[in-house]
Amino acid sequence: MKFPQIITFIFIFLYASFSSAQTNSLNAIPSAIYCSDGVTDIKSSLNDDAHQALFEAFKIADLEELLGTSGPFTLFAPSNSAFTKFSASEWDELFKLENRKKLKDLLTYHLVAGNLTASKILQALCRGKGKTSFTTVQGTKIFATMQGTDIILSDMSGNQAKITAADANQSNGVIHQIDSIIVPTGL
Questions:
Q1: pLDDT digits (tens, 9 = 90+) for 104-163
Q2: Quick check: is 186 in a domain?
Q3: Which of 23, 24, 49, 48 has its CA nearest to residue 36?
Q4: Domain around 86
Q5: Contact 187, 103 (CB under 8 A)
Q6: Is residue 176 packed enough to be buried (19+ CB in 10 Å), middle (13-18) or exposed (0-12)?
């Protein structure tokens, strides 16, 4: 096989494996999160039990309305359990009025302009020979790689988050649930 054919074969294999794995994991995701018909927007979809901590953080940071704009946006949404990365005192500190910019930086680090479906991320990974990056709304990059059939996001400090549920299509973008919080440099 020639090199372009090998890349094409790898992409098809990874996409098929990823799609199959994601389909199997969708059963565990609440239907309010996984609205694939695009009827709801990101703001409405986050206001549920699985992402209540993230939604509250967006409200406190005065970014709640951003999630309801036309976008499109890609939100890498940490689940409630992902927020255990920070202690209660760290969250209390981050939620103080004088630290509002840090909270906004953290939240907008999970947003990318555009509609990055899992297949688009996989295509970028293939073009980048297994690595790619995306510029966040916060202004810095997050990095994506593959570990088996999982897409792994990394920040500049080496923190990692796995996409655990992909392609929750919304009217103004797409939500990918992640299992950890990624942190911009300096936070």
A1: 999 999 999 999 999 999 999 999 999 999 999 999 999 999 999 999 999 888 889 999
A2: no
A3: 23
A4: 3-178
A5: no
A6: buried
